[in-house]
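Notes continue from the previous slide.

Worked example: a multi-chain complex. Inputs as given:
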Amino acid sequence: MYPARTPIAARAETLYAAMGPGIEISGGSAANTVVGAAAIGVRAGYIGKVCADQLGDVFRHDVRAAGVAFTTPPARGGPPTARCMILVTPDAQRTMQTYLGACVELGPDDVDAGAVEGAAVTYLEGYLWDKPAAKDAFRKAMALAHGAGRKVALTLSDSFCVERHRAEFRDLVDNHVDIVFANEAEIVSLYQVASFDAALAAVRTKAARINVLTRSAKGSVIAAAGALHQVAAEPIDKVVDTTGAGDLYAAGFLAGIAQDRDLATCGRMGAIAAAEVISHIGARPETSLKDLVRARVGTA
Amino acid sequence: MYPARTPIAARAETLYAAMGPGIEISGGSAANTVVGAAAIGVRAGYIGKVCADQLGDVFRHDVRAAGVAFTTPPARGGPPTARCMILVTPDAQRTMQTYLGACVELGPDDVDAGAVEGAAVTYLEGYLWDKPAAKDAFRKAMALAHGAGRKVALTLSDSFCVERHRAEFRDLVDNHVDIVFANEAEIVSLYQVASFDAALAAVRTKAARINVLTRSAKGSVIAAAGALHQVAAEPIDKVVDTTGAGDLYAAGFLAGIAQDRDLATCGRMGAIAAAEVISHIGARPETSLKDLVRARVGTA
């Protein structure tokens, strides 16, 4: 699967050889989110880096076929398109082993100013906050969005990301973003507190920000403008694969924001989209999210 | 997806661009069958040609990870590994557009004599009956199997294959195989008759052969040694994707043969395996066929 005989390639081959039969599905956290938002019926675009290779072609096809605008030029040469081996256990939990590949080549030149300025929300994926060029891309996108009177959203992505960049993530959350998405582990790590309630109290101190905290089967909590909205998880028959639950929650929530819905409904839309994606393998929707949302919360 | 700018590559690109988001899963009719048989718990091997490319690596991984022996050397250079674009409509029916690629490079040198002579059944896929080298591979495998006192099974694969090679398929069925698999369209085409009943009467004339006729939701009919076994389709909640139904029916049936079960039980095992594979996208099992078979028909 990996083109060069580097140590990481050898490690990947060892892991792959030990894995059971696989299914290949496009992914990527923010890509899953924009695909989900488009599936609900809002216009969405994606900025991200693939390589000009077979997996890059497949990624581009899938995101565009889902109705998402995607024009970032692929890298030619350099590391191949990112890939992630995901092991799903019978309890639907997943273990991920990610090779970021071309992803980390994203830089400020890839940020399409017109697309960002025209979008109600620009959503940033914490996973990418690592290389200087990607950070510059974030800063450029945030400045463009705010300059156009638009909103910036950020997902903390992963508690390991939070640990690695806690001070910078705190600065992003406190001073640069309008909507923050985090799960329990991430928000607890961000504020270095002992409990979810303590983290909720900490994140609520800034009333102008929309704070969206997801809690798996316990649903989600949205804290904004002094109000607190508790949203139950959407019931489903069987949880098959939790991969993409947070990504699709963000998709539903952001689609609601783009449709100017109230925050409780945005949360409900997040729960509906998350429930669909955990009912099957893979992090891309397989049934019409638009129909599900229309049936359960009505049209905007 | 296709490496060269040939007319078929251009056509494939046009179709792919018109398709919705995709999921990539290993397939191949006979490969699906051996994977299914291995999943039930019988020892199985596969002989078939991939190219030494990314899709070939994925195919090899998946078939081996399913417990199937696969040692046919990949082609180096020449056409890339086969691929098939499958469109599944909401009624679970599928339309397939196949590029055979390296498959058609299979020849008699690829037939592993020891593997064929050691197998209870050698199963041949009618799809491959096209190029002289593949026909020679079939003839060599049949001679080896029969020389070792083993059985040869053949699937007619597709009514288009039957139309293209009717006289040769008739000869194969009448003079060279011990077990034949066909669906309604294929067996009706083979005998150029007007009804399933007429085709059944025609195929039954050779009592020494096991004739296995699948009829989708109407179940299957097994005619052998003068007896007729009617097997009901296995009930399932929802048919999602019928791709691989015939392949997995053959898997269950052949696993039963390898386990020396009676023909009615073999048919039931085929129905169980087929029901599992049509309950989700893709033609490879996603739940334990061994557990399903054990729960419903017991151990051999």
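Summary box: The longest helix of chain B spans residues 132-147. Chain B has one domain: 24-46+107-297.
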